[in-house]
Design a protein that fits this description.
Pfam families: Aldo_ket_red. The protein is of the alpha/beta class. The protein has one domain: Alpha-Beta Barrel (TIM Barrel). It is built from ten helices and ten strands. The protein has an eight-stranded parallel beta sheet with strand order 3-4-5-6-7-8-9-10. Strand 3, helix 1 and strand 4 form a beta-alpha-beta unit. Helix 8 crosses helix 9.
């Protein structure tokens, strides 16, 4: 398994996303658990989940999987609702997530998106959870540059270790300012939905993607994931509901692009030339 440096740790080149995982019937749940186990057994060591995903069902499924693994070998990430972002509610949400995940700590705990609660309160609550040993580090999700700059200007705000935003070939806004700023400030990045979510409903598949995938004898989804991973300086977390899809994701790690191929893709999916509102799903 190829690795990257993520959150100052040696980490697998991809993680496991779990949005919509654990919400189906028993057969679907069994297939999803088998997929996660396959990924863990083949070198992936990061799982990303949230209290929002199925209102805890995703965390329960993940907990049932990871109980059979050495906890210290995994990096476990979960996220909390913005209306749970006070110190009291952060602690309550975190303890509920830990119970569902069958673990006594998280490696990272993220504010899922920004709400109305002042960031100072949220940071205070997260720092208390670090001090209590219930989380190792904390971060945020769906923050733009202004949000990140405001966050890091408040007391202990610079302790934010992660920001997680939408990132795929059709949603490249983070490349203009977010990625350079986070690199400068030693903050790791997670890109979610490399396929434009399930069925690529939030990503238009241009003919160049199909043609290039056929030329390389890979699937379009493999090409999309490989493109996100092309610079190896961020973590992508594709959701996977079957062993077959997990195998496909793992194989995508080894796909390479020539400079000419990347330029060709840029014609249909241009890189951003200015700051703008970030896409979200």
């Amino acid at each position: 398994m190829k690795s990257i440096t993520f959150n100052h740790q040696n980490t697998s080149a991809i993680g496991i996303g779990t949005w919509h995982i654990g919400e189906g019937n028993s057969d679907k749940t069994e297939a999803e658990m088998a997929a996660i186990k396959y990924g863990l057994d083949h070198g992936i060591n990061v799982i990303d989940t949230a209290e929002m995903y199925g209102e805890g069902l995703s965390e329960k499924l993940v907990g049932n999987v990871i109980k059979d693994y050495h906890r210290d070998d995994l990096q476990l990430i979960s996220k909390f609702y913005p209306y749970h972002a006070t110190p009291k509610l952060i602690e309550e949400s975190l303890k509920a997530s830990l119970k569902r995940l069958q673990t006594d700590y998280l490696d990272l705990y993220l504010l899922h998106w920004r709400g109305d609660i002042p960031l100072e309160e949220t940071v205070l609550g997260l720092e208390k959870m670090v001090q209590a040993g219930l989380i190792k580090n904390w971060g945020v999700s769906n923050f733009d540059l202004n949000d990140l700059q405001e966050l890091t200007s408040i007391p202990d705000g610079k302790n934010c270790r992660i920001n997680e935003d939408l990132y795929n070939i059709g949603s490249r806004g983070i490349e203009y300012s977010i990625l350079p700023w986070q690199k400068k400030n030693h903050m790791s990045f997670i890109g979610y939905s490399p396929f434009g979510s399930d069925g690529s409903e939030y990503l238009k598949i241009e003919p160049i993607l199909t043609a290039m995938a056929n030329q390389k004898h890979v699937s379009v989804h493999q090409l999309l994931l490989a493109w996100v991973l092309r610079n190896h300086d961020l973590l992508s977390i594709p959701k996977t509901g079957s062993v077959e899809h997990m195998q496909s994701n793992l194989a995508a790690i080894d796909i390479k692009f020539t400079a000419d191929e990347l330029e060709l893709l840029d014609l249909s999916y241009p890189e951003p030339k200015h700051n703008g509102d970030l896409d979200t799903i």
